[in-house]
Design brief:
304 residues, alpha+beta, Alpha-Beta Plaits, four-stranded antiparallel beta sheet, rod-shaped, 69% helix
Length: 304
């Protein structure tokens, strides 16, 4: 009987405040959708870093005959074979370097250059003798780039030590910035959702003050009186979380699988296992957040 009464009170409360309940559902759905998307974007950035940082190399470029006036290291002209051999031997002894160290000649560098720029006007501006020879070094820990740079950047015959991570780092910074922006918007939406929940509970408690007064007179406990209001907020939040899950799954299927994965095939996008790990957290927050907000709001607005 008590359960039936609580359920009937929940139905009455939801019908009386239908507009505000709908606003709560929408705001919770948007805020939790952004929350889930932020978690997935963080996983995507981590996945991309692991993939690309494993692919990139540290390049040690040697001076060629055109570099005599580019710096002290190249003052004596092109790097000698002995200088190259010495650097190769040191690289082979370093424990942080993956073997083998790959040598790239000027002709090979020019071939890669032509493959990259194809028939564009830029391709004709460079000749093979302008491109330096280099060692392509893969590190066991890509963050140890500074060790290679400090050891070889000042060596005679070395034009430059370049970390290819510098070419992909701006992309990761952009993605991290987008993630932070999504979290900020999610926080604002969450504040709006909490304010709507508190106002909805307040209006609902005020509209049913007569019923709650009668319940107090007949000896109903505070928890029993509060339960319909808390469950109303929890149901609205759970519905919002369910819509957020639909948005997350739809975004993964439509935006990632059917668009980005086909447009950008060099990126290893996160799988459904990452989505499945996020959805229960979204549902849990959608259930508990409105319930707790309603509980604390009732302590102020419902005199029990």
């Amino acid at each position: 009987m008590r359960a039936q009464f609580v359920l009937s009170e929940i139905g009455v409360g939801l019908r009386r405040n239908l507009t505000m309940t709908f606003a709560v559902i929408v705001s919770v759905a948007l805020s939790l959708g952004l929350f889930g998307a932020s978690l997935l974007m963080r996983d995507q950035v981590s996945t991309m870093k692991g993939y690309w940082y494993d692919k990139v190399n540290v390049s040690i470029f040697f001076c060629n005959k055109n570099d005599a006036d580019t710096g002290a290291n190249c003052a004596k002209g092109a790097a000698t074979q002995q200088q190259k051999n010495d650097i190769k031997a040191e690289l082979d002894r370093l424990p942080i370097v993956q073997k083998p160290v790959v040598y790239e000649s000027s002709d090979q560098a020019y071939k890669h250059y032509k493959e990259q720029f194809g028939d564009t006007p830029v391709a004709g501006l460079v000749t093979p003798d302008q491109l330096p020879e280099s060692f392509r070094v893969k590190l066991k820990d890509p963050t140890k780039y500074a060790v290679i740079k400090s050891a070889f950047s000042e060596r005679p015959g070395v034009q430059e030590v370049q970390d290819q991570r510098d070419t992909v780092e701006p992309l990761f910074n952009l993605l991290n910035g987008m993630n932070i922006a999504a979290l900020v918007v999610m926080g604002l939406m969450l504040v709006v959702a909490l304010m709507l929940i508190v106002n909805t509970v307040r209006v609902s408690a005020f509209s049913r003050r007569r019923e709650t007064g009668i319940m107090r007179l007949v000896g109903a406990s505070s928890f029993y009186i509060q339960m319909p209001f808390i469950l109303e907020a929890a149901i609205a939040g759970l519905l919002g979380a369910a819509f957020a899950c639909v948005l997350i799954v739809g975004g993964k299927y439509v935006l990632v699988n059917n668009w980005l994965a086909k447009k950008i095939q060099v990126i290893n996008f996160i799988g459904w296992d990452s989505v499945a790990a996020v959805l229960p957290l979204v549902l849990l927050i959608g259930l508990l957040m409105p319930a707790l907000a309603a509980f604390f709001a009732l302590r102020k607005y419902l005199k029990v």
